[in-house]
Amino acid sequence: xxxxxxxxxxxxxxxxxxxxxxxxxxxxxxxxxxxxxxxxxxxxxxxxxxxxxxxxxxxxxxxxxxxxxxxxxxxxxxxxxxxxxxxxxxxxxxxxxxxxxxxxxxxxxxxxxxxxxx
Length: 118
Hints:
The chain is of the alpha+beta class. The chain has one domain (4-117): 2-Layer Sandwich (Ribosomal Protein S5, domain 2). It has four helices and four strands, in the order αβββαβαα. A four-stranded mixed beta sheet has the order 1-2-4-3, sandwiched between helices. β1 (22-26) and β2 form a beta hairpin. α2 packs across α4 (102-117). The radius of gyration is 14 Å and the shape is globular. The mean pLDDT is 84.
């Protein structure tokens, strides 16, 4: 899990949806919203949203949230991103073949996140 200093709270997440300062990126599985911070506030903050329409059980939503966080933390270990906040919204379920293969799943996520985190 992210440290509390790297997580967006609910009020901050709601600010992403009404703001004109938000940049939107669409990948194969995600809608990614990026917002530049107004001040030099340090490290980036993240929120991961997985709608109930995508995965009905909370166990599945938390499972994928943990997997996504692990990949993002691995990317952040190599690259330090400052003055930006991100909201990642899963827009469609992952194919079962990818989920079963842990290595393939991590590669797929890294490819999707590489474009906007680099």
